[in-house]
Amino acid sequence: MNRIARFTVAAILLGLPVILTAADFTLGAAQVWQKEYPFDANGSLWVENPNGAVEVIGADQNVISISAEKITRGLDEASVEEGREQTALYVAGDSRNRSVRTVVPSIRSGRWSSAVNYVLRVPRGATVKIDSGSADRIRVTNLTGGVSVRNINGPILLEGDSGPVSVDSVNGTIVYTPSGAPSADVKLSTINGHIQIYVEPEARFQWVAEALKGDLLTNLPMHGRLAGSGYRGVLNGGGPTLTTATAMGNVFLIRKGARITDARSVRALESGGPPAAALLSRDIYIPNVDGNFEYQTNIGNIRVPEVHGDARVETAAGEVHLGRIFGSATVRSGGGPLELGDIFGVISAYTKAGDILVQAARAGGEVSTDGGIIRVIYAGGTSRLHSGGGDIIVRQASGPIFADTRSGDVTINVDATLRTTAVNAKTNQGSIVLNVSPKFAADVDITILTSDPDAHTLRTDFPGLQVRRELAGNRTRVRATGKINGGGEKVELYAEEGVILFTANPARPVRLAQP
Length: 515
Description:
By secondary structure, this protein is mainly beta.
């Protein structure tokens, strides 16, 4: 038994994650690694791969078979070698729950790039979750368990799957071809891509569809009606719900074996007229409002420059632009960017996919996006910021900040006039920068969890923190605690695979307009 095999077996027996680095691959045009692990018939698999293709195939077996191809490109041999060393594969878990992850530094040299292409064979009844950044392709076939996919770029192909499906993409086109008739609920969502669904003509289901800039097309005998910008229909008496949503693309519901060009717009089918893309996109402009303002639409871009009261806006998909709001602001979007101006009251803003910009949240509040960047120029009160996959940036914080992102960097500049305030920042794959005044006082608790303690470290301008390093599985936990300037409100920072910078270099103050 060679060194790699002995290490892998020992890690499995001890329940430790397996770390695969450049030395574990065979040499060639690409580095290739293959391995099998025990896996239950209805086990759960989580795959996280920031760059590269992922293919999961259901088969009659009681193991998970993993084939990984790591491709590294660089400007010279030294750059390629650095990329190979800093692109690591992790396999962890047991026969019931197994995870496969690709980890690269969030801050790295621009002289190299890497991608990992996976082919994984699993039992048909497995539940599979895939989280991808940029993928050449994601393909999942022949599974009866649940399938969940999140990605930013690249097509998603689902073929022969019969369990529940959930796909959430930013730029990817989704193609779904179930095995037989859909037998469980399916949710397919993309911002900039198309959705194509191929089903048997005798299938029974309900179709709930939305589009912003594109159209909804089918060649099946649907019975339904238009509902604003969307469509609600039934095929053969109904059954599981098939939900589709796209902001910029088209949705095609096609009979298996037919051509996509045979499909017609549901608007033409309902009205007898030609499809009208203009019906799908509406720009709604409402001038200055005296008093409270409330508006709700299925789809559309909303712009309101000023409200002398509270504002409440809801849209299923579209951009929202609010200017000066003298009261509170509540904004909900099913998909699209939010741009909010000077908000005097408490803010509550959420979009399913898109960036959020807030000029001033004078009383603080909550800002959340499932996938996008959050930028707050001024935060006056307690503010809670969450991104499912993007950076969080606060230009000036004059109150407590609680910020977390699943994958992205967090940057917070605390008002230089504040002696102390609470700060809690967390990223599961990124770095944190916290800038405060040299006289800032706090009780500090900082943690970095990393596979490369030499690259991912704490850097601070404040002396006196006690720094400890300890092994956490096959990673290193770096923790720094203590008081600065005598202590004060709690500052808690947590980053995985990233750097934490805690500096005494506050940004220039933000000037707010007078009421």
